[in-house]
Amino acid sequence: MPHLPHRAPRRALLAAAALAWCSAVLPTAAQAQSAWPSKPVRIVVPFAPGGTTDLLARALAPELTRAFGQPFIVDNRGGAGGNIGAEAVARATPDGYTLLMGTVGTHGINRALYAKLPYDPIKDFAPVTLVAAVPNVMVMNTERAKELGIANVADFIRVAKARPGKLNMASSGNGTSIHLAGELFKSMTGTYMLHFPYRGSGPALMDMVGGNMDVMFDNLPSSMPQIKAGKLVALAVTSAARSGALPDVPTVEQAGGAALKGYEASSWFGLLAPAGTAPDTVNRLQQEVAKALATPAVKEKLLAQGAIPGGMAPAEFARHIDAEHRKWAHVVQASGAKVD
Predict the structure, then answer these.
(1) N or C: which end of the chain has fewer CB within 10 A?
(2) What is the pTM of this model?
(3) How far, in Å, are 41, 73, 101 from residue 70 at the CA level?
(4) How far is CA 249 from CA 16, 66, 152, 212, in A?
(5) Burial 103-116 (b: 16+ CB within 10 A, else e)
(6) Under a CB-based contact definition with an 8 Å cutoff, are residues 259 and 235 in contact?
């Protein structure tokens, strides 16, 4: 039997050692990747409880908790048109344990509206998926509308022009789609209302129902219970087409005539993670959110509230955000709205 060269056994030993090292390390890396989540995950809602952003986050949280086996906890951090909560997530460690329920305000409007934004809506986030798109709805306190003789949008324009600055307009905060929908309405109709920004739709709706505010261009899901209860009257929806949840309510364009031709100001809500979050984590989140939104219970609940479920892939959501930046920059410029 021929003798092996002296170096051969050594090479064989080194190869065996390398193979053993790979066998030990590679499963560990895979296990580390698949171990997420190993603790509770926060979904930051950048507005106060009770608004559509909050409602959608709370609809998703239990579904994700079941899917991943760890609690998904909603954390409300309202203020500054959503900027406080969005900045908190932008600065968070990109480990998958801090997420944002972003909105058309935080990721489509605010960069054009605010002189100084404390985060970059593109560079500081990893888009996960669109959760839902919703129209806004122009609502008034029912008793206040009767008192002023307002039954439709044409009546509202007539009264607002006759009483400039006497009607109060509530919103969920400066720079939100609710605020901008009202500003666009004002600029197109030549009306003037005093704007009162709140820390979310919830507090604003409380004052609407209480009769302290006159009008609001709220997200439809958060106003729907008050509309059904008869405490708010829906004058029009802000989308290009009527909503299936309120089929008898016209669009602002339909109800407003020539002055409001082309008016459209809908909202959307989506899940985002801090930039640098592992693509595997982002993809797993998107897949589970899409599954949750497709379940009959969640889908029917959102549709009944006027929300259209999403679920798009991360890359598609990123393109959607980019397109929304361009669209809302024009709306902000046309409305003349600015926040220092």
Answers:
(1) N
(2) 0.80
(3) 7, 9, 18
(4) 74, 37, 10, 24
(5) bbbbbbbbbbbbee
(6) no
Q: pLDDT of the chain along its 340 residues, tens only?
A: 545 445 545 555 555 554 555 445 444 434 444 589 999 999 999 999 999 999 999 999 999 999 999 999 999 999 888 999 999 999 999 999 999 999 999 999 998 888 889 999 999 999 999 999 999 999 999 999 999 999 999 999 999 999 999 999 999 988 788 998 998 899 899 999 999 999 889 999 999 999 999 999 999 999 999 999 999 999 999 998 999 999 999 999 999 989 999 998 889 999 999 999 999 999 999 999 999 999 999 999 899 888 999 999 999 999 999 998 888 888 788 777 777 6
Q: What is the DSSP letter of 35?
A: T
Which helix (H) or strand (E) is 219 found in, with range? strand 215-219
Measured CA to CA in angstroms, residue 306 lies from 16, 222, 223, 252, 309 at distances of 63, 9, 10, 16, 10
Cβ(209)–Cβ(230) below 8 Å = no
CB 191 within 8 A of CB 164: yes
- What tokens does 113 get? 């509206």
Element housing 317 (H / E):
helix 314-335
Which element (helix H / strand E) includes 16?
helix 7-34
CB 287 within 8 A of CB 129: no
Among 269, 310, 272, CA closest to 290? 310
Please name the amino acid found at residue 339.
Answer: V
Containing 76, the helix (H) or strand (E) segment is strand 72-76
Give 329: exposed, middle or buried? Use CB within 10 Å, 0-12, 13-18, 19+: middle
